[in-house]
Design goal:
Shape: globular
Number of strands: 16
Helix content: 25-40%
Largest sheet: 8 strands, parallel, barrel
Number of helices: 10
Order of helices and strands: EHEHEHHEEEEEHEEEHEHHEEEHEH
CATH superfamily: Divalent-metal-dependent TIM barrel enzymes
Strand order of the largest sheet: 1-2-3-4-9-12-13-16
Strand content: 15-25%
CATH topology: TIM Barrel
Structural class: alpha/beta
CATH class: Alpha Beta
Distance between the termini: 16 Å
Radius of gyration: 19 Å
């Protein structure tokens, strides 16, 4: 298994790449690049030259750009909403995937959702009062309808007409996902890129009037069956799986290991609609047993902490990530010794 670090837009800097290298990461996942990282974003797709330069910049620090995570809302809102320009946007997504393949970036993570990761709150949820996020039903904001021009809580179209997108059922979302996969997976296959689907976080059946797709591990199978292919894969967020009512985390790892492109390796306490993110060694999942399940199921891909509690110090994000990466690296070393 490989160890990596996820970096948000604007965080893929020389200093942060050196930090990643210093704390034993070998790979990088770049989350939701915008125009300040990839200026071609404004064209509706990412250009080959910019993606290639981006991958080379990461490589200069001795790391590999393993994945980009999430298309900007403006690149595929019509696909998510089944709008009149969805075919045009799909052609642009195909350009992006072809350009990623040409630039040697092997994975595109995506989250097929309208509400996105919404409603979480910050609090002193982790050990020692470390700040972390959680979803707590009686503290969550009111579930207002999603306004036109907004996806995942991100306002991307200031010229959108007044009103909201209305109610969208779960089956409507499955139909839209089917279109997305049937169009894009063949291009991903040709380009040598794997598409990796994130589950719904928070894993609630409906959020802000819109149906959710992956709220139990079993739902992943329906997604995989739409277009059976090694390039139709999973971004396996273990924290989200742990949050799901009725989930068996170790069973889900064993079931889906061969389809996993990379893992968000994090831990939580509680189940939806009430859970809190915590340090890796204090949550409900036994993370050592989880690593054994990945290993024994033949998974050899990438693990990243995704996010982690912030410690009380001058660099709370860096310290939290260093703790998580150190824990994972030590656990990986221990498991390697177990095998002899």
């Amino acid at each position: 298994m490989k160890l990596g670090l996820g970096l948000y837009d604007g965080m893929v800097t020389a200093d942060n790449l050196r930090f990643a290298k210093q704390v034993s990461a070998t790979h990088i996942v770049a989350h939701l690049p915008t125009e300040k990282t990839l200026p071609s974003t404004k064209e509706g797709y990412w250009s080959y030259d910019e993606l290639n330069d981006f991958a080379k910049f990461v490589a200069q620090e001795g790391l590999v750009l393993e994945a980009i995570e999430n298309f900007p809302p403006s690149h595929w809102d019509q696909i998510l909403l089944d709008g009149p320009r969805r075919a045009q946007q799909m052609e642009n997504l195909k350009k992006t995937i072809r350009n990623m393949g040409k630039a040697g970036i092997p994975t595109m993570g995506y989250y097929f959702s309208l509400a996105g990761v919404w409603g979480r709150v910050w609090g002193p949820f982790a050990r020692g009062g470390a700040e972390a996020v959680g979803y707590i039903a009686d503290q969550a904001p009111e579930q207002t309808p999603i306004p036109n021009g907004e996806i995942w809580g991100i306002r991307f179209d200031e010229n959108a007409p007044p009103g909201n997108i209305g109610t969208v059922t779960r089956e409507q979302m499955w139909d839209r996902l089917q279109y997305f996969l049937e169009e894009l997976v063949p291009v991903a296959e040709e380009s040598g890129v794997r598409l990796a689907a994130h589950p719904d976080d928070p894993p609630l059946p409906e959020l802000r009037g819109t149906g959710r797709l992956i709220t139990h591990p079993d739902h992943y199978q329906r997604l995989l069956d739409i277009v059976p292919s090694p390039h139709n894969g999973l971004e396996f967020c273990q924290g989200t799986i742990t949050e799901m009512p009725g989930s068996d985390v170790l069973g889900a790892i064993r079931t889906y290991a061969k389809h996993i492109c990379y893992v968000h390796f994090r831990n939580v306490q509680g189940k939806a609609p009430n859970y809190r993110e915590v340090f890796l060694d204090e949550g409900d999942a036994d993370m050592l047993d989880a690593l054994r399940a990945y290993r024994d199921s033949g998974f050899e891909g990438l693990m990243i902490p995704d996010h982690t509690p912030h410690t009380t110090c001058a660099a709370p994000w860096h310290a939290g990530m260093a703790y998580a990466l150190g824990y994972i690296r030590s656990a990986m070393n221990m498991l390697a010794k177990e095998q002899g």
